[in-house]
Amino acid sequence: MPDGIIRVGTDEWEIPVGYVPGMRVPGRFFLSEALAGLLEPGALQQLANVATLPGIVRYSLGMPDLHWGYGFPIGGVGAFSLDEGVISPGGVGFDINCGVRLFTTPLVRADIKKPRELIESLYRAVPTGVGAKSTAKIPKEALLSMMVKGARWAVETGYGTTRDLTRCEEGGAMNDADIRAVSEKARARGIPQGGTLGSGNHFLELQEVSEIYDEKAAAAFGVKMGQVCCMIHCGSRGLGHQVCTDHLKVLETATKRYNIALPDRQLACAPAGSPEGQAYYGAMAAAANYAWANRQMILHAARKEFVRMFGMDYESMPLVYDVAHNVAKIEEHTVEGRRARLLVHRKGATRSFGPGAPDLPGDLAAIGQPVIIPGSMGTSSYVLAGTATAMERTFGSTCHGSGRIMSRSQAKKKLTGKEVADALLARGIIVRAPNEAAIADEAPDVYKPSSEVVQVVHDAGLSTLVARLTPLGVIKG
Predict the structure, then answer these.
(1) According to the annotation, is 202 in a ligand binding site?
(2) Which domains does the chain carry?
(3) What digits encode the pLDDT tens for the residues 345-358?
(4) Which residues are catalytic?
(5) Is 233 part of any known ligand binding site?
(6) For residue 69, what is the DSSP state?
(7) What is this structure's pTM?
């Protein structure tokens, strides 16, 4: 660990005030000895930089999948006072509401006699790759509804069931969307991309439940041993990227107008209550809602392929949950014994609300929310449960995935897509992608081990292990 970092627990570390000039609070991060060896020094610098922002409350937080990002580190969490704090696109990222959802099926692995055929069928049903366009014709008026209603728009349009909405963080939509703050350019990018997977680390993956750690929570979540499941990981596509790009320009100017001193211009921000801050928040919420609608449309397309190939009922494939990874939201938390409304930025981090949280449906109230943590093609994914400890220590937050240890360009130099696909096929995992490069830069070797990451959050009590899922087939964006 770099000089100056203080160990405060088995897997918990502190960046003291003064590590970089201007820190208002300490940084805290969770990392095992094994993961510490994979840590990028730049990520800690970024975590310390976040601690200099006005109005930050208690700590700048890092999860065990911490790695370098734009402004905030990925795996970073920062909560800000609504009165004195700021809002920063760097604390959300370009792929606004990149997130993941999981649905179960009544199938077991032996029921899938032709796995390659199923993967190809899903690949045809879900447009995939850079600039992929939807087969659904979404008029301009519908786009506006997507940005306001989120997943509810999709369900009302026929892409799913009302139960799906109860299994989405925020019910699949933020109430504060302001479509006036979304540019025409962003809207034009969003119209053809509803229901598309995109590229990069986005994926659709067939999985098998291979281990249950918590029988009671698994039963409440509807997860059973041996069950075939489907996980979907994607975000707000070009619309969200354009919203971030548009508002970054405005907030870079606002940073100077409000005399906010920054150690890194990628932390461009404005007071949360300022016109510039409010405009970004409203546009970001609109993009987040688009992302929830997008994942709902993909869920519907995948379900239809299972119905067509296996003759099962559409409603026999319930959604376990949908969580956002890149978002800023106003939430109520306890700080120094008092309830306070805070603007919580989660950048590559997952909400982990524990038992009794107001956002949970009644049948999950005693358990906590499902937390979905994806692996990396060749490694397991996990279902965990949100905890009261996370509410107390991390503003109800936990990790979001494995966390990269190698850039995309480095990955492509080290491995070819064919080598990666062949190695996975030898283990019984089918990979389908638009091209080999899309496979190479997302190889399992470029990520931290998912098992170690989730063990750290489990041991720290930030979310607790419920089930492990192993990959059977992957569609990479």
Answers:
(1) yes
(2) 6-405+447-476 (3.90.1860.10)
(3) 999 999 999 999 98
(4) 400
(5) yes
(6) -
(7) 0.96
